[in-house]
Structure formats: structure tokens, C-alpha cells
Specification:
Layout: E1 5-8, E2 14-19, E3 24-37, E4 40-42, E5 45-47, E6 58-62, E7 70-74, H1 84-93, H2 98-105, E8 111-116, E9 120-123, H3 161-179, E10 184-190, H4 196-209, E11 215-219, E12 233-238, E13 254-260, H5 268-285, E14 291-295, H6 303-315, E15 319-324, E16 343-347, H7 365-378, E17 395-398, E18 402-403, H8 414-420, E19 425-430, H9 435-441, E20 448-449, E21 459-471, E22 476-480, E23 493-496, E24 520-522, E25 525-527, H10 530-543, H11 570-578, H12 593-598, H13 600-617, E26 626-633, E27 644-649, H14 652-671, H15 688-703, E28 709-714, H16 725-734, H17 739-749, E29 753-758, E30 761-762, E31 766-767, H18 779-786, E32 797-801, E33 804-809, H19 812-828, E34 839-843, H20 847-854, E35 860-861, E36 864-865, E37 871-874, E38 877-880, H21 886-906, H22 912-928, H23 931-934, H24 939-960, H25 967-973, H26 979-995, E39 1007-1010, E40 1022-1025, H27 1032-1036, H28 1038-1047, H29 1060-1068
Parallel strand pairs: 10-14, 10-15, 11-14, 15-16, 18-23, 26-29
Antiparallel strand pairs: 1-2, 2-8, 3-6, 3-7, 3-8, 3-9, 4-5, 4-7, 11-12, 12-13, 17-22, 19-21, 19-23, 20-21, 21-22, 24-25, 26-27, 28-33, 28-34, 29-30, 29-31, 32-33, 35-36, 37-38, 39-40
Helix pairs in contact: 1-2, 5-6, 11-13, 13-17, 16-17, 21-22, 21-24, 22-24, 26-28, 26-29
Amino acid sequence: MSEVLRYECRDQNLEILIVKPGERLSIYGSCSILCLAGNASINDFVLPTVSWEPSNFIKISAPQRMDVPVILQVSNDCSAYKHARLKFRLKAVAPNNYETIMEGIGTTQPAVFVLSKILDIAEGTISGAISNFLIHCSIQKQIILPPHFFICRDDFRIFPQEQESQLKAHINRLSRLRSDGQKTSILPIGHKGAGKSNLMRNLVNRCLSNGYDHVYVLDCDIGQSEFTPSGCLSLTKVTSPILDKPYGHQKKTFENSYFYGDNTVTKLPLYLDIFERLFNKFKLISEPGSVCIINSMGWVVDVGAEILDSITKVAEPDLFIEIFRDQTEYRYNFLEQVDRNNVIEIFANNSLGVIGLPNQKRLPAALIRDLTVAGYFSSLLPRPTIASFSTVAPYKLKFQNVTICVPVDLLVEDSHIFSSINTQLVALCVKNIDLKTRKLCGKADMPLISVVDENSPSLQCFGFGIIRGVNVEERSVYVVTPVDLLKLEEPPLLVRGMRIQTPSMFFTADLKPSNFVGPIKSGNGILCDDHEKAECFLSTFSEVFVSDDGLTPSIEPRTTTLIDEVSYEPYVIEYVLSKLEPKCNNSPDGIPYIILKKLCTSIALPLSLIFNQSIRSGSLPDIWKTAIVIPIYKKGSRSDPGNYRPISLTCSISKVMEKLVRRSLIEHLTRNKLLSISQYGFRSRMNTELQLLTYIGLIIRDLQKNNPVTSVYIDFRKAFDTISIFKLASKLQAYGVQGELLRWINDFLSGRSQKVFLNGVCSNTSSVGSGVPQGSVLGPLLFILFINDIGDKLESELLLYADDLKIISPNAATIQKDLMKLSEWCQTWQMKVAPSKCEYITFVKSKRTNLRVNSKINIELDGLRLPQCDYIRDLGIIFSRDLSFDSHINSILRRAQCRINILFNVLKNSVFDIMLKCYKVFIRPIMEYGSTLYSPTLKFLIRKVESVQKSFLYRCSKKFNFEYQSYFDTLEAYGLESLELRRLINDLVYLYKILVSNEFYSPNHVYTSFTHFQSLRRHSYHIKSILSNKTKFGSQYLPNRLLSCWNSLPVHVFPVKSSSLCFKNNVKRLNLSKYLTLNISTY
């Protein structure tokens, strides 16, 4: 490795650096540099050779290990060093050792520099072996090394061989515990300067090299915090090796972080309370088998020992590592409960805090923290490589615009408060955040900042800043921030980082959002760069497009009624705009919904003129046909780009016009009854439960005739993206769409372009060759029109929910013929089925029938035999071959119980009212979705479902110390209903929406409604089920299960004016106990 000579100067903040010709150095952090001799350039900026004066220093601000550093390059022409003035200059800078420096220069013609406040300088050309301290040999080949990073010398050994073996053995022991799913923790302990922080990073890298996918670090050292500003305790999930010094971590290393700030050890109870919270957070959010490394403070006696005792009691670490530099140092006295077999003592004969270049000077911790913050923040400024952090003009804010987070019982003078927050991180907030402020932020997931007073409202954070000065006399504070505060209509509030619990702080990487995309596999290997991933997705999404084959299939006109000319009045447009969601959605035209909604009256007329002209001309602006595509994960491997669905974000104004066109099309299609009654997706008055209710009725109808029923589930391959635009136009003509409107729709689908946006990076733009855009308003309707005739020639029953197709028949031969017809339809209209993803299930009445059917049925599609399954999940409901819902009930009860456990862990310090509200919002809906289908009739299943709510209330009684006499008494005391009663009421309301209020449409295959029935004592909506209720599955079917209760409802329950809400309230007042299985005496 190349050598850089360094010498101390008269001023302890200055340093002389001698660099050989042709060398490239990378400079991180904020510093000043003066070239005394030789030719050198910084990022193509030539450094002049001038006399030594403080005013001649060139100020440099370089990112702190999170971006491209400043590159200092020395050329071969260094003749200036021979000049007699060099000795004079060196004498002025370093009078005591300038002769030694001149000897060190020798005859190599180097360049000579003077640097001030050096944060770190490292060689740019890496050679030789990489020390195990930074990267373990087992994972060296898996790591892409950054171009510039700090590295150990080849001959450096971090630990003695015996202690190295002990450490390796204990890490292997923890790895074995990991395989059993046990969560473990490690506590390194050491006095200041012993190298504990470096040991902690070494442990992180060791664990990652021993099979751990990630390591949690609980940082308790608030004096020299590893991942946050000083004063913070943090819990951080580290997912890749740390290749840097403690104050220079790479941003990409970290996945998420939780931290609490504004803390010192003088607030010991608060400090220990925060530690316990963070350790409990690790136990709650971490995966089974995770490890937590606790970075303690470098303080092992007095208060430090008390803190270590408390940490030991709370965390009960599985491994203690005590590191010390010499035998005379203070040592920690372990508690008696600690097993000494789990303690490793390491004698480090090197100062692990000063590793790297020869004679490297050690900087004070306070200066390191200050320069770390400054160095990183400079990367957010316009010209971070040249502009100096110290020359950036800060914003001046008055004290009344500052919220200081200190304990409410602590009285602190203003002068003391503001001196304590100098150079610290603050959150920028405003009381009434508006659109302009949100645009400044550029992020939608900024945290809510809570001040100490719990009665105060939370503030919306839109950015961060660093306090660089306080003037107590003027009662002003100066803050540096990349956010342009001059654009704000009101001054921001500054909130210090107390109680900020957010995974999107800038000192750690942002928490991965739900649509975050990790490494992707491609033909060129594994892609980690976001831009490469975006291009890979763009290529994947473009590969599925189809070119029209030029054939025009014949399709008979479905109606003689035509729709060709439409126009939109301003009042209609104003109404549509007023109903938009008030959100700041991403849009290629940069106009969010909230702007259109607030200006609905003002822009209705101009938009009316634009929309009507667009219809008449049959054309759209190019930007309206541009889409930002977001890859949304579906299922399967997350590294396969084929397992993502492309969702298009289109222009807001274009979506408004699509709403108007869609309304016109829906009116035409509904009036002429053109849509298939088998399609339940993207239609009003239809939903998933209604389709499944019809599905079960068809199955039971045939099962009661002793016929096994086969249902084939068809999966279309990239259905939305492979529609031929030309063939779609021919179908629209058959449905009566003609003239201007047809030309407009054709132009809407033609000439489209898209670019992929992921992880904050955009791909290039490519054209769209086919399909309807997913995520648009008009796309779903056009899709269901395209497949509307898919069942015209089929003999079997079929049900559709968007592109999810089911074919149902008691005759397997009929199904086989229909699959052949389906294959022909797909070939004609250039649609593709994925046989490998299709499957079928056969519903049977008895086990004997089951055995007989299994040997007979053999179903094929496109020459491939389809797999048969015993259970299948359909629109969120699990069906079994015997049509019992035991498996589904067990599944939802497991999910509900798991969420209850999480609820009690998260809301440890909450009150009962909050706990009850969370139960109603997050848990009860799990057990009630689809209850019209699976609501149990057997007593043991009813008790089993009810036990979830019962156990929840019992646990609440223990936690909140209220009396628990019986389940039904507790329900009455807190205004709750039993789950069985709620299911009965939901069933009645659902049937009311079908029969009376017509909120849902049902083909009425399985029941007869006597709407003509007139009686003064009974209501006129009596029903009679066509299906028998003598079988287990027949009695569970909604009309049979509800028949007696529905027909016996009193007349006054039905409101004069149809209203499902009013009906529900009336039903709740009735005594329905005789229709319930459970009561206070039986449960």
C-alpha cells in the first residue's frame, strides 16, 4: 500500500501532508487545505501554490462517507518544492520540526499540503489483503467494495490468537441458538479508549459472516452515538457489513432505526426507561433467531457500573465481552447472576480507536461529532465539493418559533437550553402544513413529532436542520437546512429530537416503504443499483406486450343503440372535481388532486372546453398518455421482476376526464344490459362476498343432486397488458361505441409511454405496445368489456372477478370441452392462459364419493394436466372439498390471536378505551369478512370463534384491573355484542341489501322472494329457499341459515324509506336470543 507522510504543526488543528506524485487521495468531511509545493487539483479545480497565510486556505466540504468524496490528485510536475521559499513556508507553519519534514521529502518530488481540521484522509487505490476486522473472509466475495473507504494495515492483528478463538467459538454457539429460533444479545464492555466501538462493529460483521441476514444494534453510548446525533439511544437494523470508522458509516448499511433523543446520564431513570423500551422493541419486531448487540458507554465504574447492572438485568445478555487496553484500567464488576462461562476478556495491546495510516492523529470526540453532522449536511447543499459548510448562510428564527423538548418538571433558563442544542439535529415543522410545504419536503412519509406535553398536538415534520448558532440577547436561533425556508408562508417550528420514533431520519437509511424493491435477479446477475433495477423492470414490463396479428375476428353487434357523441357541462365537471380525494398524489403533470379539488369552481369551465375539444378531435395531449409505473409485489420470489404488477400513475386531469367517459360508458352499458351477469369485478352493486355467495349456491344445488362439482380456476398471463388495442376497438364497436368517442378511446390507448419509478429512481421512457393501463380509471372497464363474451359458448357455469375466472360444472367432460373452447377464444383474441398456475377442486358430498371421483377426473388445458387440490383460497376465503369452512375458521382465528398478542405488546402503557378501539379496528374485521359465507352452525365452532373475543376481554380485565364476572356480563358492561350476534345482524342486513334496498344485485338462483305477499302482521319480503337445508352444507347456506329469523321479523323493523342503516339499527333493538346458540347460561 502507498504511504502518505503526515506531520504535526505548531497549531494542533493543522497538519502537514506529503503526497507522492500520481497519487489520488479521497477527502471526507469539512476541512481547509493549502498547497505549499507541487501541482495538485481537487475535482479538476487546480490548487494554487501560495504563501502560508490563514486567508489563503481553500475550504472544502465533502460528504461524510455517504457520497462521492473530494478527490485530490497530485501531478508529476512538482518542481516548486525545490524552491528556497518552501523551507521558509514550512518554518512558519512548523518551526520545531521543519527540518525533519524537509528530510522526509527526499528526492521523490512530492506535493506538500497543510490541512486544517482533517476529518479523515485515506488512500484511493486499495491494494493488498483486506483485514478480517472490516470484512470476514467468508463474505468478502459477496461485498461490492466502495471506491473509497477506511482500511486496516495488512500486518495488523486485532485480537490475540487465543481470544480470537474464544470469540469465534461463542459466535458459533449463538448461531446454534439462532437455528432454534432463539433471540440472543451480546454486551461489549470497555473503558474509554479501549476500542469498544470498533469491537462492536467487528461483532456486527462477524455475525453477518456467520449466517445472520441482519443484526440489531442497540446503541446506548449517548456521548459518541454510532448512528444518530449525540444524546440519542437507538435501535438500528444493520443488513450489510460496516466498512468504516464509527463516525463515518455508509448510509446504505442500515435498513431502519428507532431512536429517542435529548437524553443524558444525569436523567438516569429516563435513560434506563428508554433502554428498556428499545430492547422490548427489538424483541417485538425482530425475526426469530435475531441477535442484538448492545453498544454500552465507555464507563465501567460508579454511575457507569449502575447502568451496566441495569442493562444486564433487563437484557440478560447471552455473551459478555470485556475489552481493556492495559491491566491497570478500571474493570467492571459483573453481577453474581452472570455466568462467567459467557464472559470473554480481551486484552487489546493496540489502540483500536487509532487504526490505519501511520502516525494518524486522533481527533476529539466532540469535534468528530460536529464534523460528522457538518460533513453529511454539506452533501445536501448545492455544491458540496467546493462550498464550505461554514460559509452557508443560516436562517434566522425567533425564539417564539422554537419548541424546546425538555422534561416538564425541569426548569431551565433559555441560555442553558440553547447552548445545549447548538450543533444538534432539529426537526422542522409548521402548525398548518400546506401544499407548498409538502412540496418542499418531497417525501410523503415524514414523521409526526410529539412534544413532551401529551395534550399538545403532534406536528408534521417536513425536513431537518442543524442549529449552528444561538443569540440569547436577540432571542434568535440560526439553523442550516437544505430546505428553502424563504418559500414558506409562515415561519417553521424547530423541534429537537426528543420522542422522535421514526425510521426515516436522515442519519440512517429510510425505512423501506411497502413498495420498496430489493436486489433483483436478471440475466446479468444480481442487480443492486436502483437505476439498473428500474431499467430491468422496464424491460420486463415491456416484454409482455403483444403485436396485433392483423386478423379481425367476427363479432356480432350486441346492441342497436349507439353512443358516439358526448359532451360535458361545467357543473358536471365541478361535481366530479369536488368529489376527488384531497391528497398530494404523484402525477406526471405535477398537479395533485388537492389542487383540482380546491379550485373546482374556478377551473370547471376551462376544463369543460378542453375536454369537449378533446372528444371532438379524438385526441389527447401526449402528457396525458404518459405513465409513471410503480412495481407492486404480488407473490413468489421478491427477486424475480416477473412477480411484480405494474401500476400506472397517470395525470390527474386525465383521470378526471376518464371518470367522465367511464360514467357515459357505464350508463350506456347498463341501460342496454350489455355486461355479463357473471362478471362481479369493477362493477357497482357487486362485491367479492356476493360472487362467493352465488358460487356456493351453485355448488350446493348440484351436490344435493348427489353430483360431485368440479371447479376450475383459470389464471390469465399478464391479462391487462396483453390486450390488443385493435381487437378491443372492434369489440367496442359491437357494444355500440362509435364515432368521436371510439376515436378518443383508441387514441387514449395508442401511443402511450411509461417509465418505471422505484426507490426514488426513474428509468428511461419506453413505448407501450398493448394493453390497458392498470391504475387508470378507464382501464378496468375496458378490460371487462374485452373479456365480456368469454362465456358465450361455454356450457358450464362461470364466474368472473376482473380476470379471475372460475368454470363450474358437475360434468367433468363438459368442463374439458369448455376448456378447449376457452383455449380457442384466447387464441382468437390473442390472450394467454398460464396452465401451470391453473388448478381445480372437486366438491363432494361424502368420503365415498370422494374416492370414486379421484380416480375418474383428468382435466387438461393446452395439453397440460391441471393439478387437483383439496383446499383453495378464493377471494380471501379458504374452500375445502367437503365445503366445510373449518380450515378457513382456523386460519382467521390464528391471525386474530396473533394480532391480539401484538396489541398487548405494543400498547403496554395504554388505557382500556384505546385497547378496545384497536381491537375493533384491527382484529374484529378479520373474523367478520365473509361471515355471510362461513358463519358456523355447529356449537363447537361457534364457541371456538367466540373464544377469541372472550380471551381478549379476560386479558384486558387482568391488565386493567376491572372485575370479570362472566363473558356476557362483560359484554353488556362495555357495550359490546357477541360475535355470534354480530354475524346474525350482518346476515340480516346483507339480505336486506339484496332483497329490499337493492344495494347488491343477485341473480336469485337459489331462493324465491314473495314480494307480492301482503299481511298486516308480517312483512312483505318473505323468502323461500330452493335448496334443502337437510345437509350440513345446505343448512350453513345463507338463505337456509337465515330463513326462520328473516321471515319472522316484525313489520316495524323495515323502514318506510329503504335504508340499510336504519334497518340495522332497528334489528339491534330486537331480542334475537332464540336464534342464537350461546347465552349466559351456556357460555
